[in-house]
Records
---
Amino acid sequence: MCLPPHCPYDHDIKLQDGKAPPFGPLYPMSWEELKALKDWIEENLRKGFICPSSSPATSPVLFVKKPGGGLRFCVDYRALNAITVKDRYPLPLTKETLNNLKGMKYFTKIDIISAFNNLRIKKGLKYLTAFCT
């Protein structure tokens, strides 16, 4: 498994003028979390989702307990999100969307595992998504 090829609609990360990329701190982890981190890194290196980096920008990582047990790897991008230029466009109205479903007979539900890992970042901007361990 590997990332899809670059395309015209790769994800763009625009920083606010004059803002430097964040350099996040390390968060403390338990032994269980450190083991999960090692396993997650090895698996995602093997899949080609991540690669070693010496980026000047980093975001800290943490784990969240899953409802059914186990740990979910998370990157805390709040500092990066705080300095990005926001896309401003209206979302569809919930009531209008639900009204459009009236009378429909079939609905589809899909569960896409690791969909976030299949988003391509625009060339030259991947360094902004680096995380520190």
Note: Strands lie at 59-65, 71-75, 131-132.
---
Amino acid sequence: MEFKKLKTTKVLKSKLKIRDIAEYTDYLEEVHTLFGNDLPWFRGQSNISYKLIPSITRSTSWKYSPDDEYELISDFIHKGRLLLPQIARITNHWEWMQLGQHYGLPTRLLDWTESALVALFFAIESEAESPCVWCLNPHMLNELSTNHRLIFFTDSLTREPLDEENILKYEMASKNLPDYPLAFLPNRFDRRMFNQKACFTAHGRKKCGFEELQKSSESPFLIRLDIEPNNIEYIRFQMRTLGISTVDIYPDLDGLSKDIKVFKNMMSQ
């Protein structure tokens, strides 16, 4: 399996569009070879034209404002305390930002997963014109953005001084927000986050921080695997046979309802 480099960003992409799980696995082996001992993170997207930027930065007029961010997250905290049973387990602002991100609140966070199959599910879950799965080397990203080749933790009970020193700069309404993204592992206090093997990048002042860092790096830390749109239904079927279904990704009544509908539609074809 071969890759080619995008001229404008130096990002590697799959030379061929992936047609089934076997080809996906073959490309993943190549990704692991390129990343060495660093385990990749993954992100599925329904369109290759979508940039790797957080939802809050997608407005053309966006500019980081600590006051605006504080107001947004604070409003979510004040109004959200009584709505979810896991609120009692939330111990810091990081976890409120993560919860908000998972429920559609615009934040500086971008969702990733440690599971290549979960990312593939998201890439082809809905109507997809040109689906893809992004592969990220989080260790290399953090080396470029913080000079530390490791992944940081935000859990207040387990993080160490080096975690504290670096994540403090990216916290809610930070006055000293760096320019480039930081990769971190969260406390997966929410069932969805746990099932989806959620991890995040916290983004800085530069909207296209990934692209700028990749241009400056001699080695790839971002790789894009393109999926053949005409094979989406077949790949969905393969995913189902491997035991990856909607209720596994969304472990609640909404997910169960969607899963039953998906299965009925699949059996009627």
Note: Residues 12 and 110 are 20 Å apart (CA to CA).
---
Amino acid sequence: MADSTSVSPSSSVGSLDSHLGSFRARLGVVVAVGALVRLVRLVVVKWDQPLLLNDSLYYSAQARQLTEGRWFREIFVDHPGAEHGPLTSLVLAPLSWMAEPVPWQRLGTVVLGVVVVALIGVLGRRIGGDLVGLVAASIAAVYPNLWLNDGLVMSESLATLLVVASLIVLLDVRERLEHGDSAVLGVAAMFGVLVGLAALTRSELALFVPLGWVVLWRTKVELRTLGRVALALTTTAVLTVAPWTLFNLIRFEHPVLLTTNDGTTLLGAYCDETFDGPFRAGWFIGCVVDHPSWDDQLEPSVRSGLQRDAAFDYLRDRAADLPAMAVRRVARTFDLYAIDDLIAQDVGEERERWAVRTGIAAFWLLAPLAAAGVLRITRAQRDVLALPVITTVLVSALFYGAHRFRTPMEPVVVVLAAVTLVDLWRRARDRPIRVRDDRAGAPTRTAP
């Protein structure tokens, strides 16, 4: 009987690079697909859709006010306004001059989302090489939990862009630090600027500063060098945020570091309806509007203080329930609890119901792959990619469960899933496949 022969996988599959162009060209094709997905949705679904009663009204109106020379005032009453960070409205302001700015503001967040696809490709390349970068960008191009935010007049698209850029730069900081590169201070300063901008987009992203310290501390570098690098990133982060904070300190009755939204967030999360009622582990606006502090004549920092005090009173009364509630909140953010209410919350923020359901299914598919990907990367890479994951868990546990809080970690899920998929593909490619030949007397042979 003739011996079976083994065929080299590379002889039949060929080199991927020989069939495709450079990484940039291939990434450009993927980004174009991502742009097409987002633009089609924008034109077909979002272009003429009016804003709903949610945060988009604030961002849109603030951007329009900036074009009129009104710098961050409340949109319904004449009070200073800092309900949300300023950067989203500042970025959208150049698109807000026309009589009907909302469609153009939506286009602005679509453009930001397209940039996110490209940056995820770059991040994936830094983690696992060209193929991981291309697979990560390909997933990002069509992943509902990313494109659902693009076309909304919200902060998520910009925040995601800044998160991915921060992770890319922090990887560079860590690498330069371990190799003793003298340019590390400049790169660390760049990371600080990006984190400062991210905090001006979504306040919770300020956590990247102390978490960044931990990433640096886990390197085998002398303490003095670590201190200089940590000081560089912290100083630039503070300086980036400082103009906004100083502006707030001179116009509000009580100190406002970033936003006045903390009172509303806490009061809507710490009440009977979210601890025992139908909105368990979530957030309920009824808890806010039914409280005596819901008075538009109150100065915003005063109102936020009253809301915060009420929430802390409730928190102290329910202290024994907090550990279980924290678990429920995190489970909700990760699509494991109260899914119907989670979907309703997203629909109220202008996300299409079918797309939200598709996003949940996609997350269930990608999350196990991402978990497996954690084991396939280096410790340094794990440290850096952990930042948005830890932030998501902490914010969810302290406040409430929501997809918006998971948005910063979606790029990490995508990249780690890509790492696993590429590793599985390479293993399958390099393993000969036994093929049975059913002809009488024919030997079993191997094929690529």
Note: The chain is about 65% helix and 0% strand.
---
Amino acid sequence: MGKSAEDQAIEFFIKRAQLASETADHHVRDGEFDKGAKLYRQAYGFFLKAQKNHPDDQELAILLQEVKKKYQDSIQKSQASTN
């Protein structure tokens, strides 16, 4: 039997979050902190949607915290580069 619609949605959210986070990493490496921050924020939102269906998933909780930290760091770097 195939995956349920809920499982497919969660899988989509996780894959989409990973893609946004990886793309953000590239932008931050290139010094495009605003673009990186925007993508990290998107990634956080997708990981959050996935976690709502699996609140006890420690791996998702760790990914959420990592993306949140990357977002905060890119915001700080963006502000520092404009000052």
Note: The chain is about 85% helix and 0% strand.
